[in-house]
Amino acid sequence: MTAIDQPIIEFIAEHHILNLAVSRNNQPWCATCYYVFLEKEKLFVFTSGDETRHVRDVLEGENYQVAGTIALETRIVGKIRGLQFSGRIFKPQPELLKRTRAAYLKRFPVARLMKLHLWVLEPDLLKLTDNRLGFGTKLTWKQAP
Questions:
Q1: Which domain holds residue 113?
Q2: What confidence tens digit (pLDDT) does each residue in 21-67 have?
């Protein structure tokens, strides 16, 4: 498995909200989700109920391919950083569920007060734009076939 460049890992670790884009019947939809990233497994973990539009669109449309972003909000051009990604989401099976739940609750302890509907996003592409490394600098990671 190809290693992800350290600046990409660091950017993902610095943030906790991703924007998830889905599509069903040629109708796009976006959602904002709190996440934790499991670096060793290269997986994003987020919670979202089956009644939400983005989860319904994935399940009913049987389209588990998604895209999204994580962005740093700044007006200073030299500090612009953001990540674009694509990948596949799925419900974690029992062997992965325990680890994903523990990681999510460690990052967001308040989530113990709610019913968790965990999802896992396995990225196949990560593209980081980081102007701190030079204007328009992009680092790209693609999952090996």
A1: 6-142
A2: 999 999 999 999 999 999 999 999 999 999 999 999 999 989 999 99
Residue 104: how many other CB atoms lie within 10 Å: 21
Residue 35: burial class (beta carbons within 10 Å; 0-12, 13-18, 19+): buried
Give the model confidence (pLDDT) of 123-135 as tens digits: 999 999 988 888 8
3-state secondary structure (DSSP) of residue 72: coil
Long-range contacts at 89-95 (CB < 8 A, ≥ 24 apart): 89/58, 89/64, 89/119, 89/120, 89/121, 89/122, 90/64, 90/119, 90/120, 90/122, 91/118, 91/119, 91/120, 92/45, 92/118, 92/119, 92/120
CA 68 to chain centre: 7
Domains identified in the chain, total number = 1
User: Which of 68, 67, 76, 83 lies closest to 9, judged by CA?
Assistant: 83
Q: Is 1 within a domain? A: no
